[in-house]
Every structure is written in structure tokens, then in C-alpha cells.
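Notes on consecutive records. When two proteins share a document, each keeps its own sequence and its own C-alpha cell line. Never mix them. Below: protein one.
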Amino acid sequence: MPVASAIGFSVNYFSDEAGGEGGFLLFIMLVTIAASVVAVIRKANWSRITAGVVGIVAGLIGMIDGFGTMGSVSGTRYASVGRA
């Protein structure tokens, strides 16, 4: 999905222009999914707490990254956030 577009040019987090942030975000989300699966299978308190903490950290990283992108693109002429 596009992060930002301007005059027919679209950028996503896996583009070279984004600095390769997509790989890190994908990795942290996969770690969150793995921790959640372990929490469902093990049913131990430590696994549920770990899954919750990892999920919160991943969400905060994604949110900060998204708001940073919106802030940097919103002042640019002819650019929009998230439109193809």
C-alpha cells in the first residue's frame, strides 16, 4: 500500500526512497504474531505478558513511523498521504 504519492509517483515503505523501513516493520509485526501464537498455545502468564508488550511496542513503532511520514509529506506541494 502506498505511504505517500505525488503527481502520479507513489512510495511505499519497501521503496528505496523510504529508506528500507518496510523490512523492519514487517519483522517486528512477524515477531508480534509469533509471540501471540505462543501465548495462545502455552497459556502461561509470561507468554501473554510478552505478547502484549511486543504488540504494544510494535504498534508504537508503526504509529510513530506513520505520523512521521504524515508530518513530512503533508507540507509538500501536490503530495498526499496514502493515496495511490
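Protein two starts on the next line and is unrelated to protein one.
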Amino acid sequence: MVRRPVAWIVAIVLFVEALGVAALNWFLGIVVDRQQMSLAGLDPDAMSVGSKAGGIVFGLYFALCGVVALLVALRDRAPAGFGRILLISVAVVHALLGAFAWGLVGPGAFAFMVVVLGLVVLLLMTYDRLEGPSGQSPEPPPGKDPAPALPPAAPSPS
């Protein structure tokens, strides 16, 4: 049973985005290479290789963030340590990309970036709310009585 599907959705979106970013940058590298374009005197081969390398790096980054979200979904618990830092960083990246996308691409790309940003923040906030400071769920599992909050009182001497 899937209790919180947001982690699954974030994982799928980040994997699709990883493939899309890598494919787009690879395509742009091919276009620059075939047309022998140059920007401010830069070598077209260097621009092509840089675009392809950037696509691979960002694709792997988004895929790694997708793996973290997938692990959160499979384990059904909050990300910790490096995984949490990765998810926070991918949220910041989407906020910055959204700000740039509005001016360069248009409101559609901005909306997509904001939706992904919202999903990642929702993932982080959902699991934080349901876990206490010690990482334990505050509610007992269904069908079990909660443990007593205080130990039994000691018998008084008579």
C-alpha cells in the first residue's frame, strides 16, 4: 500500500527530467558541432564537448536526486544526511532554473520548474511532519497499544 505517493512522483519526475536534460544538451552539442557555430571566438569543438559534458553531469545529478527520492519512497521514511542535502539542493536548482526560465523560455517552463520545486518541498515537508525529533513516528502502529509514557509508580512504604 502506498501511503505517501509524493516520493514516487518526485522520483519519476526527476528521472524523466534527467533524461530530458541530458538529451537536450546532447542535441545542442550536435547542432553546434554540425553548424560550426562560435560564440565570442570560442572553439566550436570545445562548445560542443562542453554542452555534451554539461548534459551528462546535470543528467546524472538529477538521476541521483531521483534515486534518493526512490529510496525515500521504498523505505517510507525521511531522507537523512547526504540524501536530504541533495533534495534541498535540487529544490534550489529548480527555483533558480524557474527564475531564468520565465525570462528565457516563457511561462510554461517556469510553471514546470515551480511544480517540480513544489513537489520536492512537499516531499521534504511531508516526511518531516510525520516524524519526531528522534526519527520515530509519534503514532503507534495500528492494532498496538502505545507504550506507557511514565514508568509505574514505586510502591509507597506502609
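For the record: The CA atoms of residues 6 and 122 lie 7 Å apart.
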